Amino acid sequence: MTDRPPPEHCTRADLDAARTARLPDLVRPGLRVLFCGINPGLRSAASGLHSNRPGNRFRPALHRSGFTPRLLTAAEQDELLTLGLGISNLVDRPTAGVRELSDDERRSGARLLTAKVEELRPARVAPLGVTGHRAAFTAPRAHGSRTGSEPRLPRPPMTRPDARFDALPPLFCSEDGIRPGPHERPGRPTPSGKP
Description:
The chain is α/β, with parallel strands linked by helices.
């Protein structure tokens, strides 16, 4: 990523140009966990590094949650692969915010993500952004909901039983680390596997 500026040095022109850039997935077959965001931000696309917006909580949350032995910088993202962790997105198109994405883009991304998971066969897929994933898989009532009021992520139509999409609860990056969503039941396993 030699010609790309660090996020703190992105100009308006860099961000505008990033709208047509493509941020490659950070994946390999057999990952322990594939983290799946909605789509890349403009600063990440401009720099060529995932979660590279200043103030992004993903990498600090990975460390505080025990997924990484230390806080990795965005430039060290390849080290995630050695830890069995990968990053992908539902939609490849970089935007300033997820509201710029159409429902069609999200549904198309869901089909592509399903195929990607079937090919790569990660042990777990951890969705980051429940609302966006739910819209992508077009579930009016999310999978596992008894009343329809509990926001649960729908299960995509995976053909391989070992491609577990809902094995981790929907995750949110907070200052305390990666945690289950606010509507998850207590005692349900967290990313570390502990309730």
